[in-house]
Protein 1
Amino acid sequence: MTLFLARRLLQMIPVLFFVSVIIFVLINLVPGDAARLFLGEEAPPDALAVLRHEMGLDRPLYVQYLRWAGGLVRGDFGHSFKDNRQVLPTLLQKVPVTAELAAWALLIAWTIAIPAGVLAAWRRRTVVDYSASAVALTGLSIPNFWLGIMLIYLFAVNLRWLPASGYVSPAQDLGRNLRTIVMPAFVLGVVLAAVVMRQLRSSMLEVLSADYVRTASAKGLGARVVLIRHALRNAVIPVITVMGIQLGTLLGGAVITESIFALPGLGRLAVESIYGRDYQMLEGVVMFSAFSILLINLIVDVVYSLIDPRIKLAGARS
Amino acid sequence: MRRWGVVVLSVVIAGSVLAAASAQGSRQGGTLRAALDRDPPNLDPHRSTAAVDRQVFQSLYDKLVDTDENLRIIPMLATSWTISPDGKTVTLSLRQGVKFHDGTPFNAEAVKYNFDRMQDPKFPSARRSEIGPIQKVVAVDPATVQIVLERPYSPLLYVLTDRAGMMVSPAAAQKAGVDFALHPVGAGPFRFVEKIPQDHIALERTPDYWAKGQPSLDRIVYRPIIDDNARVANLKSGDVDIINIVPLPQIKQLTQEAAQRGARFTLLERGAFQWYGVWLNVTKPPFDSKPLRQAFNATIDRTVIANVVLQGAAYPAFSFFPNGTPAYDPGWKIPPRNLPLAKEKLQAAGRPNGFAFTMLTLPGQQDQALAQAIQSMAAEAGIQMKIETIEFGAMLDSMVRLQHQAGQIGWSGRPDPDFDIYPHVTQSGIGSFNFGGYANPKVQELLDAARLLNDMSRRKRAYGEVTKILADDMPYVWTHFPKEYKLVSAKVHGFVQVPDGMMRFHKVWLSP
C-alpha cells in the first residue's frame, strides 16, 4: 500500500509539469492585455511599458514560465496583477468554502440518490422506478441559476428563514454557517443526485440479474441483506468513479452557484481572474484544481480496493 | 367592540410614536451592508481603473472637492479655490486640522505628494492622462497649495472630485509602495478594516472625522453580488441595505413593488450620467463609408430602445451629454427613425441591397436585448448585422486595436463634460477610448478650445457644434442614456442620491 501510494504520488510530478506548461501557454494565448486592463483604457504607452516591466510581461514567454515554475517549486505562487495580493494565501482562503460546499453537495446527493437508485432497480418497471427516474430527469434538467433564484425567493425573500447569500466559516458561527450553505449545497446536490441515481440504477440492474444474487436469495436471505450487502456493494464501484469525477469538478469551483449565492469560492476567484487577465492568480487556481483531481483519482483507486478486495493495487503486497 | 377598536388604535399610535422616538434617538451606530455589482479589484485610487472601486473610495478617501446632488462643485478637503486670470494657476485653500487615518496630518505637502505620486513615471498611475496638463504643484504654506498648469484646463476642478482628487496618506503610501491597495489609508469618514476578495470589504467609522457629527454609521460592509437577480433578491430579503446597480429590465416591476403599502424598499431615480450606443470603426470596411454609417444610423428607433426595450429606464440619446449633466442641451432633438433616408444613403453608397457587418457585444441579458433590437431595426433596411458576444477584456483588446467593425459599449460618465467626449473622438484617443478610430481636425480644434474656456455656457456652444459634426459623421451611434437608480431598504435614512451613481454614506443613518 505504501509503495503504491509513493509510486502514484511520484507519477503526479510529470503530470503536474505538463499541466503547468499547458495552462501557462493557454492563458498567454487568450487575447487581452493584462497591463491595459490594469491601467485602464486611456493609459499612456510609457506607463504601460513601465507596468509590463513591473509585471515581468516584457520578458520572453519561456523566461516568464521558468520564473513562475521556479517559484512554484519553492512554494511561491506569485502575486495578483490587480492589487499585488499573494496568490497562495488567497487561494487557501477559498479552499475551505469550496470544499465545504462540495462535501455538503455530495452528502445531499448520496442521501437522495442511493435509496432512490436501489429502490428504482429493485422495483424495476413499477411506479416507484418511473417516478424516481422522472424526478431524476427533472433534477438534471433544472438549470442551477433558476433553481438558486427560486430558492432565494422562497426561503429568503418570502419566508425569511435563511440568509440569501454570503458565507460564514463554521469556526466563527456553526449555525450561521449551516444556514448559508444549505441552499447552494442543495442546488448542486440535486444535479449530482440525478446523475448518481441513474448510474446506480443501471449498475444495480446488472448486478441483480447476476447468479450470486439469485443464489443469495435462494439461500433464503432477506431482501434487505441481498440488496445492501450483496448487490449494492458490487454495484457501487462504477458509481464511485462518477462521484470521483464529480468531486473533482466541484473542487474546481461551482461558478454559477457561487455567483448566485455570493460565496467566495474557487470558482469565482477563477472567473474574476480570467476577466482581469490576472495571470498568476488564474494559473494558481488551475494548478490547484489539477492537483486536487489527481489526488481524488488516487483516493478513488484506494477506495475501490477497500470496497472490493478482488481489486489489487499495483505494487501492493497481497 | 368599538371601544376595543379605539383602545387598539391608541396602543398602535402610542407604539409607533415610541418607535419613531427611539428611531430618532438611535441615529448613531449600526452596520450598513451595500451590495456591489462586482468585486472592487484595486483600492488604490491612483491605480484603480474599475468604476466599482470608486464606490468604496467615497467612504475611504476624501477628495479635494466634491459634487452635490445637482453636480455643482462643493468644498471638501479644499475649503475654497481661485483661478488666476490667465487660467494657468489654481490656488486651493486647505481645510486645517484634518488627519489621515494613520494620524499623518493633511496639509499642502501631502497634496503635493499625491500629485507627484500620480505623475511618477516609475509608478504607473491610471490618473496620468486626467492630470496631464498639470506642470507642478507648489506648497505655498501648510494651508495653501498652487496647481500650476501648462495651459488653461477647465475640467480640472471636476477631475478633482474623482479619483485624481482623492488624497492618500503620504506616510502610508511610502511605506506600502505597490502594496498600498492592500492597506489603503485615506482621510475619509470611514477607515479600512479588511478585504476578503469576492466576499466583502469592511470599513469602520473614523472617530475624529473633520465634519462634526459625521459619520453616523459604525461600519460599512460592501459585498460583491455579481448576479443581477440575486443582488435584487438580497435587497428584498433584507440581507443588504442598498445596491449600486439596479438591472434596467427590472425597473418597471420594482417601481410597482416599491409603491405597494408596507414595501420594505424604495427605488430612487435621479438623472442620467452614462451614455450608450454602437461604435462604428471608420478605418475599416464597411463603415469607412460615411453614407453607410448614416444609413445604419437612420434605421435606429431611439424611442423604441428607451421605452420598449428598456421599458422607460433610459432617455433616448443623440449626443454624448446625458439629460441633467452640465453640457446637456434640451434644444437638441432626437431624430426619428427614417427608413427612406436609410435606403437613400445605401443607394448613394452604391449598396442599394444593403450590406453585412458584425457587431461585438458584451454578455448579459440587457446587452443582448439591445443588440437584438438594433439587429432587427437594421434588417428592415437590408442591413444584415451579425451579433458576436464577447467577454469584456477580449472586446477591449479588439476595439483598442481597431480590429472590429462595430461594437456596442457605453461610458460610465464623468462630472465634467470634457471626459464624456474628448478622448472618445480625437486623434489622441486612438488606441485608448476612441473605438471608432475617428479623427477630424475641426472637432479637435473645437474641443481643444473648449478646454481653455472656464465659462460653461461658452463651452456648451462648442460642444453643440461638435455634436452637429458628429451627428453627420456618425463614428458613434448614440442610442440611450441609462437613468441612474438606487434600490434602498426602508431602514436607510439620509441617503442623498447624486447622478454620478456614487454612494456617499457620510450622513446616512439606519433605523432598527
Protein 2
Amino acid sequence: MSARRLPNLDMTRRWGGDVPIAERVLHSLGAHPSFAEALLGDLAEERARRSKEVGSVSAELWYIREALRAVPHLLLNALRHGGAPGRARAMVALMAVAAVPALATLALLRDPPPARLVVDGQGGGEEGIVLNSRHPIQLAMRALDEEGRTLPRAQVNYQWVGGMELPVTSSGIVTCTGRGDAEVRASVGAVQTTLLIRCRPVKALYTDSWLQLVAGESVQRLGLWAIGPDSSAVTLLAGDIHVGDTAIAALSGRGIRPRAPGHTVIITRIGDAETITGVSVYELVPSFEGLRTDQRFVIAPVRVARGETIRWPLPSGQFWLVYRRASETEPIPRLSVQGPVMCMPDFAPNVDFVDCLVRGAGASITITHPGSTSSAIAGRLALGRQEDR
Amino acid sequence: MATSIGTLELSALLTVARLGDEAYGLAVRHDLSERTGRDYSVGAIYTTLQRLEDKGLLTSRASEPLPVRGGRSRRHFRLTGAGARAIRDAERHAKSMWAGVGTSMRPRTA
C-alpha cells in the first residue's frame, strides 16, 4: 500500500464523542491519513501496553509526551504528502502555534490602563515643579495603574495651557527662558493633570567656600545664594546637595551636621550651576598640649585677659591654623610662632588663617591679648593637619 | 547510481529486514531503541519509514483493524529489491571504508 493511498477506515465516521481530543488535534494537523492513522494507532497500542504494565497514569503521561513529539512529524508529513488541503491545515496549525507565544508576549507587554500621573523626582504638588535650569529640561512624569505600579511604556503627552508663555514639546521638554509660572497639561489616555511649572532660571550660584564645624555640635546652615539672568536673587530653588564623606558630615535639611573629625566636600547642584564647599570638622580639645599624631583636626578654646599670653606647642608637619572669634565684634589676638616653623602668610594684625610647616621639635604658637580692649577676648584656635606625604 | 541514505534510515532498513513480517512502526521503534539505546519518538520512526518508502526502499501494507489500536490497522513494512540493494551497498561501503584500518580500531563482531 502506498503512503498516499487513503486508508480503508472512515475516520469521519469513527470520530464519535469517544475519540480523545489529543487524537482529534493530531489528526487535524493535515498529515496524510495513512501516515496519521499508523502513527496514532502505534500510540494507542503502546499506551494500552504500558497501561497494563506500568499503570494508566504513567501510560497517559507517555502518551502526552509522544503526542507532542509527533506534532512536528505530522506537520512535516502534511506539508509533503497532505496535498493542498493538508498543507493548508498544516499552515493554519503552524500559524496557530506561532500565534500562541506572540499573543502571550503581546498580553505581557500590554500595559493596564493608567489610573494617575505622578511627577518623578522634580517636586510638583502645590509648590509646582521648580526649574532653575536655563537649558531644555525633560519633565519627568510616570503613569501608574490602579494598584500604583509604574506603566513604563505609557506615553505622556504635554501641552502648555496657561500662565507665562513656555516652550514645551509634546514629549515634555520645556525651556525656561525667563522667570515666571506656567501651566502645562500632562495626559496619558483618559488621565490628565495640570502641572504648575515655576521657571526660576539661575545664572550663578554661590555657597560658603569653607565650613568649619566642631564634632557633636549643632547643625550649621549652608550659605547658598543664587542669581538669575536678570541679576536678581533667586530664592525658589530645587536641586541637590551631596556630601562627599557622610561619616564626617551629614545633610540635615539645608544644614550640615558635623559628625566626626575630618575634611570633606559638599557639592551643590541647582539648575545648570554647581559649587563645591569644603567642610572641616574638628575635635574639641582643651589645648594643643599633648596632641597625638592621629588627632589631625582639633580646635581648642582660647581666652586671654589683657596682658596675658598663652603658649602652646605645635606638632611637626604641615597644617593650617585658623583663629575663630566668638563673635564678629571680638578682636583677634596677636598670634605668633616660634622655633623651627614657617607660616604663610606671616601673622599680622587681623590675619586669622595661615598655613604652617614645622620641621622639628620645639615649635610653638603664642596667643597674646592685643591690648585694644580692656576685657578678656575669647575664641577658638583650630588646627588641621594635612595628610602625611 | 545508489540511493543515498542516512544512518537512521539504514538502521531502520536493517530493522525492517530483521523483523520480517513483524516490521511495523512500534516494533521498529522498540528494536531500534533497544539496539541503539536511544529514545526515538514514534513520529521520528514513521517519518523515516515514510522517507524510505518514498525512496522506493520499502513498501507498506495495512493489517486488519485491531481493537488494541482503537480500530486502526498496523502499517507493516517490507524491503523492496532496491532496499535490499541499499543494505548491501551500505555494507560494501562500510567494508571499503574499514579496509586498512588497524584491528584495534575495528568494531568487534559477535
